[in-house]
Amino acid sequence: MTRAEEAVKVRDPRYPFTAIVGSEDLKLALILNAVSPGVGGVLVRGEKGTAKSTIVRALAALLPPVEVVRGCRFSCDPAAPDPGCPDGPHEAAPGTVRPARLVELPVGASEDRLAGSLDLERALTEGVKAFEPGLLADAHRGVLYVDEVNLLHDHLVDLLLDAAALGTCYVEREGVSVRHAARFLLVGTMNPEEGELRPQLLDRFGLTVEVRASREVSQRAEVVRRRLAFEADPVAFAASWQARERELATRVAEARARVAEVTLPDSALRSIATVCAAFEVDGLRADLVTARAAIAHAAWRGGTTVTAEDVREAARLALPHRRRRDPFDAPGLDEARLDELLDQTPEDPEEPDDPGDGPEGGPGDGPEGGPGGGPDSPGSGPGGSGEDVPGTEPAEPANREGVPAPAGGDAATGRTGDDRVAEADPARRARLFTVPGLGAGAPGRRSRAATPLGRVTGARVPGGRPASLHLRATVEAAAPYQVGRGRNGPGLLLRREDLREAAREGREGNLVLFVVDASGSMAARRRMRAVKGAVLGLLLDAYQRRDKVGLVTFRGTRADLVLPPTSSVEAGAARLRELPTGGRTPLAAGLLRAAEVLRVERLRDPSRRPLLVLVTDGRATSGTVEEAHRAAALLAGVATVVVDCETGHIRLGLAASLARRMGARAVRLDDLTDLAGVVRDRRAAA
User: Fold this and answer.
1) Neighbours of 599 (CB within 10 A)
2) Whether residue 284 has pLDDT greater than 50
3) Does the pLDDT at position 442 exceed 90?
4) What's the mean pLDDT in 5-25?
5) Which long-range contacts (C-beta less than 8 Å, at least 24 apart) are formed by 74-81?
6) Which among 616, 585, 527, 578 has a CA at the least distance from the CA of 405?
7) In 3D, which of 17, 23, 18 has the Cα closest to residue 213?
8) Given pLDDT bands bounded at 50, 70 and 90, which one contains residue 326?
9) Which of 3, 14, 227, 285 is catalytic?
10) Whole-angstrom Cα distance, residue 66 to residue 3?
11) What whole-number distance in Å separates Cα of residue 143 and Cα of residue 126?
């Protein structure tokens, strides 16, 4: 049995890679990384229930087994051991062969678990400074899989991607200085509905793939058929696909051995540079990744020279997520434009290979006969193009911004024929809003909080099991009692009462709930355009600070929760752009709905503190001002900023009066771009 065959020997009832129906682009992206790990990993974006995790977990069975130094915790290769391995130096001796590992990084992992840390047990009991490896060491020469990577803490994502790019993990903490090799195939999956990765983090993934469930009935039926068969008898199902798995594993191993022989002609290199420049990607990482992926694709199809088709397949996977100019832009690539650029690239007269003429059927060979798949969608997701949705706004003489809604209204959106949708002004850059006091919510970038990941501010006696041991304070607490406890060796004699926990302070993400007046009065004098632009700026700020957002609107006789609290700020931007205006102003209903939303969210996530942003002119034409003030009293304990939208020379000051009743600070709409410490100043009153 060959090593490739040994790799796919049925060891556990894992769903076979070749049994996956569809998702050809994802399969191709994973295989290109398996052929050449230098491509830089794969980010899998897709809706829930699209077998993202199943495909990734199935990949590990196709990777060739690895030979490691016996007893080495860092998986050194016996043929070329790492000279700086913490377990080295290694003597020349036969190694042991084991399957490639699939290591999963949970969302709640700590930095110590990921990178490794001082072995506290040995340090305290034996007085020895020893290093305890983390998940990066376990994943060396294997696959590191991060499910829901967009929910992973930012500092962990930075550490993870740095190690993946350098192929080395550096640990400098608690008196430990360690470097070890960490070369792995990085795969992350995410559901965009739960929030996006920052563009600079997206850029660190080599390839990206959008996964959507097939709309073809026959294909969906086949997915269910195979899944039910697998659940009925996993071992038998896996055995029935074993021959295909072996064949694919053999091909991966052969392509990996062939990569070094593939040449990248100047004509193909110019094609890559032309495409990356035309699509205006930042930096040169896109060019490098596209070149590596094109070389891997050529090796995968069995060629020895990169062709135009190799470049096209590589660019389709390497460029979509690098074209975002705004956090609300959706990744995408215009494939017609890509083909046009490749056709226009001048050929190298001295190059014998024509980059446009690849071998017949070569690049199309995928795990099941071809990568296939539909083209990646252009950047036309919510807010993706930056264009406003033409729509509707109240039919008032002073308003000429929108067009009326269809006669009879729209049942899906709740609009009526009298509604209009205003276009949004460009998003304004908002200054920082914070919640007063010291919170304890999820790590983020908005308000001060006691978090397990911030800077160490001191030590404290833990209430239960220490979340993060403060080594120095623990030693200082135990040191005076060593003689009395009969210590006679190098280690400390510890008791539970000696343990001290590190007190840390960082920043938390908050729940930013927008409550927006969408009544007819907001449409006058182009006011709603300015309001939407200002709120888009606040949404952008919430995106950068890792907040959850929600959107309540009120108009006519009711208030609606247009966007339940979510981490998908992009969804908030899309709902805001499509927001219709019209009707009377039920201010009290809007405040009552906001109070109810916050009450429910407090039960769901009690540690996440809310920040309420009320956008109104203070008028209440449906109900009375007194009713609105009574409703405002229910929100008196919530950190609130009232954005006063009243315009004109004569001002009634209704929004300012409402803010006083709520204990909030009133800010004029025109001043939203200059809000230094608006809410932060409320700490003194807290």
Assistant:
1) 10
2) yes
3) no
4) 69
5) 74/133, 74/137, 74/140, 74/180, 74/181, 75/137, 75/140, 75/141, 75/142, 76/181, 77/141
6) 578
7) 23
8) low
9) 285
10) 9
11) 34
Q: What would the two tokens of residue 394 be?
A: 């109240």
Contact 552, 514 (CB under 8 A): yes
Residue 454: what pLDDT?
Answer: 67
428 in catalytic set: no
Listed residue (44, 57, 46, 48) closest to 17, CA to CA: 57
Distance (Å, rounded) from C-alpha 41 to C-alpha 163? 12
Copy the structure tokens of residue 372. 């296939």
Do the bridges between strand 455-460 and strand 501-508 make them parallel or antiparallel, or are there none, so unpaired?
antiparallel
Q: Would you state the structure tokens that stand for residue 649, as one six-digit string?
A: 């020379």
Comparison of pLDDT for 535 and 271, the residue scoring more: 271
DSSP state of 305: B
Q: What is the DSSP string of 177-227?
A: EEEEE---EEEEEE-GGG-PPPHHHHTTSSEEEEE-----HHHHHHHHHHH
Q: Which amino acid is at 513?
A: L
SS3 243: helix
Contact 101, 63 (CB under 8 A): no
Among 412-416, 493-497, 638-642, the range of highest mean pLDDT: 638-642
Pairing of strands 610-616, 639-644: parallel
- For residue 174, name the pLDDT band (cuts at 50, 70, 90): low
CB 154 within 8 A of CB 454: no
Mapped to the 3 state alphabet, what secondary structure does 592-647 carry? HHHHHHHHHHHHHCCCCCEEEEEEECCCCCCCCHHHHHHHHHCCCCCEEEEEECCC
- Residues in CB range of 81: below 8 A, 6 or more apart: 69, 72, 88, 89, 90
Amino acid at 230: F
- Positive or negative CA dihedral for 379, 381, 386, 388? positive
Q: Are 322 and 315 in contact (CB under 8 A)?
A: no
Please give the Cα distance from 148 to 156 (Å, whole number). Answer: 13
pLDDT in tens, 179-194: 888 888 888 888 776 6
**Number of neighbouring beta carbons within 10 Å of residue 452:** 15
Q: What pLDDT score does 385 carry?
A: 36
According to DSSP, the residues that pair with 580 across neighbouring strands are 421
DSSP 3-state of 20: coil
Task: Please tell me the number of Cα atoms within 13 Å of 71 on its side-chain side.
Answer: 7
Retrieve residue 585's tokens.
Answer: 């102003």
Q: How confident is the model at residue 374 (pLDDT cuts 50, 70, 90)?
A: very low
The confidence band for 591, taking pLDDT boundaries of 50, 70 and 90, is very high
Question: What is the mean predicted confidence (pLDDT) over 347-366?
Answer: 41
Q: What is the residue whose two structure tokens read 């915790």? A: 73
* CB-based contact 49:213 (threshold 8 Å): yes
What's the sign of the alpha-carbon dihedral 116, 118, 120, 126?
Answer: positive
Residue 117's DSSP bridge partners are 132
